[in-house]
């Protein structure tokens, strides 16, 4: 059912360094109102780095949400509202993997968790990589691994890789490039 939905107000609950939690008062077309919680996020960019052998460079890092180590494509938050997601993707590629790309192609973008968060993640494919050096933040502990697309997709279906941006990006990459 479509119609006019109005946001009547917003109350900030928490303001962190990366995310903000607000409640919003919403009025629906039938006149009823509701209070909805929303996590506000500046957005992010992620990249599928493809090496000269066609393998994908992945990063293994600790994630607090899982209380464990995860295997993911390199990614990071936009530094500020309005930052070009391509610049963010290039920065994160070099920081986390120690590579720059001569060619970066936009693949797609998506809401990370549309029911509760306004974060949009922009996905790129990096090719023609040049080795540089990792430049990790002081709170990042990242190891770099190279895997075939088939092996990574199998890890997704086995539940080894459970990160949504990585799973959807790998599937989109396979679909778009008919691999």
In CATH, the architecture of the largest domain is Alpha-Beta Complex
Order of helices and strands: EEEEEEEHEEEHH
Total separate domains: 2
Tell me the fraction of residues in β-strands, as a range. 35-45%
CATH level 3 topology of the largest domain: Nucleoside Triphosphate Pyrophosphohydrolase
In CATH, what is the homologous superfamily of the largest domain? Answer: Nucleoside Triphosphate Pyrophosphohydrolase
List the helices and strands and how they pair.
Elements: E1 6-15, E2 20-27, E3 33-40, E4 44-49, E5 56-63, E6 68-72, E7 75-77, H1 85-97, E8 99-111, E9 120-131, E10 142-147, H2 149-157, H3 164-177
Domain Nudix hydrolase: 39-174
Cofactor: Mg(2+)
GO molecular function: hydrolase activity
Which features does this protein show?
179 residues, alpha+beta, Nucleoside Triphosphate Pyrophosphohydrolase, 2 domains, 4-stranded mixed sheet
Structural notes for this entry:
By secondary structure, the chain is α+β, with helices and mostly antiparallel strands. It folds into two domains: 6-40, no CATH class; 44-177, Nucleoside Triphosphate Pyrophosphohydrolase (Alpha-Beta Complex), CATH 3.90.79. The chain has three helices and ten strands. The chain has helices spanning 85-97, 149-157, 164-177, and strands at 6-15, 20-27, 33-40, 44-49, 56-63, 68-72, 75-77, 99-111, 120-131, 142-147. Helix 2 packs across helix 3. The longest helix has 14 residues, at 164-177. The mean pLDDT is 95. Its cofactor is Mg(2+). GO terms for molecular function: hydrolase activity.
């Amino acid at each position: 059912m479509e119609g006019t939905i109005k946001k009547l107000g917003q109350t900030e609950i928490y303001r962190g360094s990366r995310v903000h939690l607000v409640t919003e008062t919403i009025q629906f077309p039938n006149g009823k109102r509701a209070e909805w919680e929303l996590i506000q996020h500046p957005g992010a960019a992620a990249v599928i780095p493809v090496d000269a052998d066609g393998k994908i460079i992945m990063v293994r890092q600790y994630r607090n949400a899982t209380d464990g180590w995860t295997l993911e494509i390199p990614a990071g938050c936009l530094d500020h509202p309005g930052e070009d997601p391509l610049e963010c993707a290039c920065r994160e590629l070099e920081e986390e993997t120690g590579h720059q790309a001569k060619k970066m192609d936009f693949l797609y973008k998506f809401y990370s968790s549309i029911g509760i968060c306004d974060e949009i993640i922009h996905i790129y494919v990096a090719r023609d990589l040049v080795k540089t050096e990792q430049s990790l933040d002081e709170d990042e502990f990242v190891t770099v691994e190279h895997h075939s697309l088939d092996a990574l997709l199998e890890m997704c279906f086995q539940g080894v890789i459970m990160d949504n941006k990585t799973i959807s990006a790998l599937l989109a990459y396979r679909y778009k490039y008919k691999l």
